[in-house]
Records
---
Amino acid sequence: EVQLVESGGGLVQPGGSLTLSCAASGYAYPTGCMAWFRQAPGKGREGVAAIDRAGGITYEDSVKGRFTISQDNAKNILYLQMNNLKPEDTAMYYCAGRHLAGCRLQEAIFAYWGQGTQVTVSS
């Protein structure tokens, strides 16, 4: 079993920055692919960014250039550094993990999910 716990969410003004963390615990770390998804009220869950074992990264177009995904393999922590935040970034952010190789912003491929952390961008 793998547990994922997000932290770092909160209220930030437009143009501000925030860094989210996702700590993984359990017997096995999802080394195949780790990702961030988000879900705004009334909308479906969308992929934000993903990183594979080799460090290959995929970003959703709307966050490219503003968000940076990274991971500390030694500590089993996934990060999402968010800069120049916009009101439309407001959502519940979830981290997700997958053991198998293959890293895509597709919700169905991830077996492990955290509880989420709320990010609100408002002035």
Note: The longest strand covers residues 18-26.
---
Amino acid sequence: QVQLVESGGGLVQAGGSLRLSCAASGRTFSSYAMGWFRQAPGKERRFVAAISLSGGNSAYADPVKGRFTISRDNTKNTLYLQMNSLKPEDTAVYYCAAHPGYPLVVRTLGSQYAYWGQGTQVTVSS
């Protein structure tokens, strides 16, 4: 029922910052919990961060804790991922995803998400 489009990826030097955006279609964005996943070259898609319906709860993968911040603006139907202190290991295609949710609930498994964007490339140079 929703379509997701990521943007904001690009090339950045190690230690720099990027902010990714995910624009969602429809009029019921606040009914979906959201997440970010990434797939590095030669590796499987992995969980990055998740956020509950109104932003009251969030979760992060260990490699990005303290560096990345997930947020959402339900008035704009948009999900964000602020990425600071970027490392070459963060290089990957980043995907946003959505699932019908419950208040304060977050999910960390890709199989739990119903809708996916096409991804945006993030490349971090040394």
Note: The chain has a mean pLDDT of 95.
